[in-house]
Amino acid sequence: MKRFVLRRLGYALVSLALLSVTIFVFVRLTGDPALLLVEPGASKADVDAVRERFGLDRPLVVQYVRFVGGLVHGDFGQSFYYRTPVLELYLSRLPNSLLLAAVAMSFSLLIGIPTGVLAAVRVNSWLDRAGRIFALLGLSLPSFWIGLVLILFFSVYLGWLPSSGSGSVLHVLMPAFALGWYFAASHMRLTRSSMLDVLGAEYVKLARLKGLPERRVIAKHALKNALIPVLTLAGINLVIMINVAVVVETVFAWPGIGRLLYEGITFRDFPIVQATVLLGGSMIVFVNLLVDVLYGMIDPRIRYER
Amino acid sequence: MNASTAVVVAEVPRPSARRLSSFPAVPVAILVFMVLLALGADVLAPHNPEVGSLGMRFRPPAWQAGGSTTYLLGTDHLGRDVLSRLLFGARVSLVVGFTAVIVAGILGVTLGIVAGYLGGWVDEVIMRLTDTWLALPALTFAIFLAAVMGPSEMNIVIVLAAVYWTRYARVIRGEVLSLKEREFVRLAVIAGCSRLTIMRRHILPNVMNSAVVLATLMLGVVIVTEAALSFLGVGVPPPKPAWGLMLADGKRGLMAGYWWLTVLPGLCIMFLVLAANLLGDWLRVKLDPQLRQL
After folding, report:
1. Residue B100 domain-assigned?
2. How far A1 CA sits from the closest chain B CA (Å)?
């Protein structure tokens, strides 16, 4: 077990290192990083000052070590626009992103799991077909367009919900649904296929042979086991939600990380863009590590495979 | 209860088998239609998509009060014809989408084959990189790259290819791992073929099916990502007519209820992506039984 955890930890560290190299290299491949790090419209002297301050005239290896050294100390640079450390900004927006992701996740599970179960229990019924169309639409519609159409209906025509901002329960409903539909679709598909797998298992057959009512077989024996992969996916998806909400947050002016990234783009505030990608990637590496280790604890078979 | 379950199980294969053989007429028709519109945009578009007249701002579609047949689908905030912009927008989406999917495919398939066939440290390096890039949230990564490179259609293709090649590499490598144990590859080794020849002549043709399936499934993803990037202002630069850009412009008229600026470009994206996904699903089942679980 210890060796297993250490190996996974090693993989995660390698991933983080590659992540930082990727970001580092791309910034330098595509032009002069000093130009990205100065404010738009800065003078030649300013550019030179930045080049000196960040050691951009030094060899690449030295630059990389300094870059990573900064990251390890939590130094992601200073925002040009807000004039505060990027990490502080990021952390101040994180709760909003978490709230949005949590509500979107609840939507996606409340819709995805029941429809997935029904679709699996009644294969090829109209319910199954309707579910399939719902999933296909969820996977095909751009989330930001769903958001715009929701605004059109519920804010402009009906006037029921506020079109942008945050602060009340009503504010979170539309962005959460726009964000959650895609994930509801993927949770539905996985629930359906996982249920179909489990329904063919020996212990479900035994439960039926014992004469348990079908309802109990499904709820107690099948569903509980079918939910394991779905909940794992949901855990990973929660982190992904936090990081892909950029467009939805922009549409609804929701003050989360995505909105911060959008502001970073529009104000050409490069340190913000860089930090958001780095922190988002690290978050996902960390969650993958967590899932791996938890699975290794539960299931010894995973521990011994390479 | 048992009886009914048995019936359900027995019925499953037949409908799906029928669906398998039936040609996906609807998605193909949508795709062909879109391609024709994009190709004929020069002839079909009634107005210049990039120039409008400010006196004609926010005209509704022809069938609504205040609309006219000059602007069949209305005009935007600069008085530009929405129909013309949609037609030329189809060209942008399709060109960017197809090119990005193909470039990403070439990159991903090559690296996947090399990693899978050569194995060892080459495999280790490529797969570590693939895993790391797969861990990055695709949209955020694309935004980062686009912000670094600056907006242009060419750069969008590079960004999308750089983000999405990993999906190919992962799957193709897996297939190569099993292919290289097969008889015909071993015989080629004995016959003295070089590693390059084996990869090109014996491995590549055998992974093409999967590559085509993946490419079709990726098409929808890539088109949505392009729209999102353009919507955020790091994609296709204005005043070019791209659907994502039209949605961004449409936001100005949203609260005033100018629905056509938001609904129409979105519907175009939806139909194109839906068609690509349906075709991809069909191809997956048809061409590649191994990918059915994907």
Report:
1. yes
2. 23
Give the gap in angstroms from C-alpha A90 to the nearest C-alpha of chain B.
15
Distance CA A268, CA B253 (A): 26
* CA–CA separation, B192 and B87 (whole Å): 54
Looking at the structure of chain B, the number of domains it has is: 1
Domain contains B81: yes
pLDDT tens for residues B168-209? 998 999 889 988 888 998 899 899 889 899 999 999 999 998
Residues of chain B neighbouring A151 (CB-CB closer than 8 A)? 254-255
In chain A, residues with a C-beta closer than 8 Å to the C-beta of B226 are none
The enclosing domain of B119 has a CATH number of 1.10.3720.10
Give residue B108's domain range: 26-32+71-293
Cβ contact, residue pair B277, A124, below 8 Å: no
Q: Tell me the whole-structure pTM to 2 decimals.
A: 0.85
Reported as type and span, the H/E element at residue A277 is helix A270-298
Spell out the residues 6+ positions from residue B246 whose beta carbon is closer than 8 angstroms to its own. Answer: B76, B82, B85, B86, B89, B261, B265
- The span from the CA of B290 to the CA of B284, in Å, is 9
Residue B61 lies in a domain: no
Residue B10 domain flag: no
Distance CA B216, CA B276 (A): 6
What does the DSSP 8-state code read for residue B195?
H
Q: Which of A208, A246, A277 sits opposite B136 (nearest CB)?
A: A277
**What is the sign, positive or negative, of the torsion defined by CA atoms of B14, B20, B22, B24?**
positive
Determine, for residues B255 and A276 on separate chains, whether the beta-carbon distance falls below 8 Å.
no
Q: What pLDDT digit, counting tens, does each position of A216-264 carry?
A: 888 878 888 888 888 888 888 898 888 888 889 988 888 999 889 888 8
- Exposed, middle or buried, B246 (CB in 10 Å: 0-12/13-18/19+)? buried
Q: Which residues from chain A sit within 8 angstroms of residue B8, using beta carbons? A: 122-123
Report the 10 Å Cβ neighbour count for B257: 11
Alpha helices in A122-168 (DSSP H): 126-140, 143-150
Question: CA B272, CA B285: separation in Å to the nearest integer?
Answer: 20
Taking the C-alpha atoms of residue A154 and residue B254, their distance in angstroms, rounded to an integer, is 12
By the 8 A CB rule, do B269 and A146 touch?
no
Picking from A134, A194, A218, A247 by the largest number of B CB atoms within 10 A of its own CB, the best residue to mutate is: A247
List CB contacts (< 8 A) between B277 and chain A: 136, 139-140
